[in-house]
Hints:
- By secondary structure, the protein is of the alpha/beta class.
- It has two domains: 214 residues, 2-enoyl-CoA Hydratase, Chain A, domain 1 (Alpha-Beta Complex), CATH 3.90.226.10; 73 residues, no CATH class.
- It has a six-stranded mixed β-sheet, sandwiched between helices. Strands 4-6-8-9 form a four-stranded mixed β-sheet.
- Helix 1 links the parallel strand 2 and strand 3.
- The protein is globular and about 60 Å long.
- It starts with 15 loop residues before the first strand and ends in a 20-residue tail after the last helix.
- This is Enoyl-CoA hydratase.
- One of its GO terms (cellular component) is mitochondrion.
- It comes from Puccinia striiformis.
Amino acid sequence: MKPNSTSGIPSHGPTVRCTFLEEGRVLMVAMNRPKYLNSMTDEMQNDLERVLDYAEEEPSIWVIVITGTIIPKTTKSFCGGQDLKDWFGQKDEDQRERLLKTPKGFGSISRRHSRKPMIAAVDGLCLGGGLELLLNCDLVIATEPSTFGFPEVSKGVFVAQGGIPRLVHHCGRTLASELLFLGRSINALTARDKFRIVNEVVPTTEDLMPAVHKMSKQIISNSPAAVQLTKLALVDTLRRGHRSFLREAELNKLGKLENETGSGIEQSTVSTILSDEFEDWFSGPDMQEGLKSFVEKRKPKWTDPVKKKLGSSKL
């Protein structure tokens, strides 16, 4: 059953705003400290964790959108990173302890293992931890005036919540070094065309939500079980690293790769087939419904995936 209001969402403070889109299939979660560039505090982090854990477990939610609240005629921001005043007020040992005790990363997103597609909708500044959490989203839509960067080194701070390896995955060592060592910001077009961390750029704020609706509708028109299984396979491939896959491609070119059972490609494929997500999809109704609707020339009627406890996925 699709939720038709936010009443089922866990209690949270004003630092987070939640809105259901597309008849409840999409949950949009907005970081809500616009006067402070939506910078992260412990309160916001805790609010985000509660809301996103709920979204992860709720079968009727198929897509999650992450965005930032903006105030007209002020500096726009997706997320300006960590609230340094909040962070600076803590003891050194508290800061290190917090890093170790946040397995889901910055904003409970940058290292989160979500089985559901996550879309980042960016309008304005996306800096530091804000960029770290964006890099763990599956799809990114940004307005043309938006800016992206890791200014940490200019503040004597380290990118510590998963942003470095994810950035390298996106654009390689050389470009990642440029963004990390120089501490400079880039615009949305550069983020898309050169660094490959943005999927779609729209001209203005007014164009952002229509683009989000369009992308969300395209995703939820597909089987949620198949989409989630596809994400499992995609993430598993990234986890095994691209080096083994490049090596296998070279061996294959030389005719020396003969279905090696220990290869990264083989391991990733077998891991996906043996996963609970594969079993849920294979034994579930969506595959038969998809084939039947194709033959009958009608739109398929997809079913909510099996409800899973948080952390049960192999993602």
